[in-house]
Design brief:
Length: about 190
């Protein structure tokens, strides 16, 4: 130090000669930095932990959605199977004395139900061929029934309607039962998953 330097310069020179770790503001800043690093590390730890928990929750949600979808498909198959069993029983118990009007009503009812119940499965490659055969047989049955439409004022011959459609309804019943079997196999496969 030179005596001719003003006092503020002497203080600056003294501050520059003193090691920086001897100053209180160094330790304050170091403590704040260390606390920030610790807080950052703890935050990173909890962020990673939250990310892993969110990923596990997402997997669980996807598993639950898959299980719910499979349960929904299973219930749909079971519901359709029950309805098809009812249709099969009606076709199987066709009265030999059935009149044209009753046969037309039965065929319209069966056609509507079968189309409604099989619609969800039309794009299923395992079920589509069986459903197509059923739909084709419904058309054949309708054509067979059209062949015995009574003329106005004409008396129906007993057994004529039955004889006209019984072969087609037997085939239709066979195909409905084939579809029932396929639905049963698929529903058991769903249960096995």
């Amino acid at each position: 130090m030179t005596p001719d330097q003003p006092e503020p310069l002497q203080q600056i020179e003294q501050a520059l000669r003193t090691p920086y770790w001897h100053h209180a503001d160094f330790w304050i800043n170091a403590a704040i930095g260390a606390a920030g690093a610790i807080i950052g590390a703890v935050g990173l730890y909890y962020a990673i932990k939250a990310f892993r928990a969110a990923r596990a929750a997402q997997r669980a949600a996807m598993d639950a959605k898959t299980a719910a979808d499979q349960a929904g498909r299973f219930m749909t198959m079971q519901t359709v199977a029950i309805e098809l069993m009812g249709i099969s029983q009606r076709l199987n118990n066709l009265d030999q004395k059935i009149r044209f009007r009753e046969a037309r009503f039965l065929l319209d009812e069966v056609t509507g139900k079968i189309h409604r119940f099989t619609a969800p499965f039309l794009n299923n490659p395992e079920l589509a061929p069986s459903i197509t055969r059923i739909h084709e047989t419904l058309i054949s049955t309708k054509n067979a029934l059209s062949g015995v439409i009574p003329s106005p004022g004409e008396e129906e011959v007993e057994g004529q309607t039955y004889n006209a459609i019984q072969g087609e309804t037997a085939t239709l019943n066979l195909y409905v039962n084939d579809l029932l079997g396929l639905l049963e196999v698929k529903s058991h496969q769903q249960l096995a998953i």
